[in-house]
Amino acid sequence: MRPLTEEETSLVFAKLASFIGDNVSMLIDRNDGDYCFRNHKERVYYCSENLMRQAACISREPLLSFGTCLGKFTKSKKFHLQITALDYLAPYAKFKVWLKPNAEQQFLYGNNILKSGIARMTDGTPTHAGIVVYSMTDVPLGFGVSAKGTSDSKRADPTALVVLHQCDLGEYLRNESHLN
Length: 180
Prior knowledge:
It is a single chain. The chain has two domains: 2-85, Nuclear Transport Factor 2, Chain: A (Roll), CATH 3.10.450; 93-174, Archaeosine Trna-guanine Transglycosylase, Chain: A, domain 4, CATH 2.30.130.10. The chain has seven helices and twelve strands. The chain has helices spanning 6-20, 24-28, 49-55, 86-89, 101-108, 150-155, 171-174; strands at residues 2-3, 29-30, 33-40, 43-48, 68-73, 79-81, 96-99, 113-114, 118-121, 130-134, 140-146, 161-168. The strands form two sheets. Strands 1, 2, 3, 4, 5 and 6 form a six-stranded antiparallel β-sheet that branches. A six-stranded mixed β-sheet has the order 8-12-11-10-7-9. A hairpin with a 5-residue loop joins strand 10 and strand 11. It starts with a strand and ends in a 6-residue tail after the last helix.
């Protein structure tokens, strides 16, 4: 368990900023205590400083995880968010998409979202922006990247891809052994 390097911090904050914008500061400056990001075995954990101090008492090798795993660094040093970050992205998301009930299942199986499956979309969503996907009952289902902005998607045909899938709640079942 170690603090993030300057390069790692910029990669993590850039990825988070693509989904929640300037609200990244709200993850650190919270009313209920001080929170931090730590790197442990190439995974980035988000936890309270109190929990981090308690986890520091355990040697690195037997320590499996602590706090919430937001994502991991690949061997090429790129940062990938995991589905476990959804609870922290959803409340602060800048751009959102609400799915029709028939499209929810397709998204939860790992498919991209077509225009025909979208019920609502945040106005002003640009192309290639991070986007959080919700059900019609405002339950966050996952996140992805917008393939078309709001204005482009209004003019697109019903079979056009609007949101490219990155993570969904179904990954808890599909990739259970890789999430820690």
